[in-house]
Amino acid sequence: MNKKFIKEKNDKNVFYFRNEKLVNYLSKKDIAFLNKFNKSRICTHASKNSDLHEMFIFHKKGTLVKAHKHNVDESFLLLKGKVELILYDEKGKKKKSKIINSIFNKNNNLDFYFRINKGTYHSQFFLEDTYFKESTLGPFNKNKTKYANW
């Protein structure tokens, strides 16, 4: 692991910058260690209590993020890989499915970004090893994420 980061105390796959500086920088080399885990993230915000949460996240091919919704909007920018985004209604009926690709894909017609409004049930299935940037508002409270029970 890179010496720039420290592990979250309660989660071995979540990392924060070691020191909060005026400016923090990331390189490809800095995030290379993330693929040693099935799911991992570097949080560029100072703590779970920060007002803005920005994370660089890695999910291995085959990872399924179960259907859930939040009380805040969130956005995703795919840096490398491919994911299927699935949206659902309140009863669990699939409303829409969309393949999201890397921003660096050579086909300019492919989507590389998505924003999900608060209260929208969604899941993701990772079709390739994928790196992405997620942004949302804090502070983080796991009780405000509601997982579908259908």
Describe this protein's structure:
The mean pLDDT is 92. The chain has one domain (5-147): Jelly Rolls (Sandwich), CATH 2.60.120. The protein is built from 1 helix and 12 strands. It is globular and about 45 Å long. By secondary structure, the protein is mostly beta strands. The strands form 2 sheets. The chain has a 7-stranded mixed beta sheet, with no helix packed on it. It has a 5-stranded antiparallel beta sheet with strand order 8-7-10-5-12, with no helix packed on it.
Name the features.
Jelly Rolls; single chain; five-stranded antiparallel beta sheet; 12 strands; mainly beta; globular; 150 residues
Brief summary of the model shown:
The protein is built from 1 helix and 12 strands. It has 150 residues and is mostly beta strands.
Write the SSE topology.
Blueprint: E1 5-8, E2 11-17, H1 28-31, E3 39-43, E4 52-59, E5 64-69, E6 74-80, E7 82-88, E8 94-101, E9 113-116, E10 121-126, E11 130-137, E12 146-147
Parallel strand pairs: 2-3
Antiparallel strand pairs: 1-2, 3-4, 4-11, 5-10, 5-12, 6-9, 6-11, 7-8, 7-10
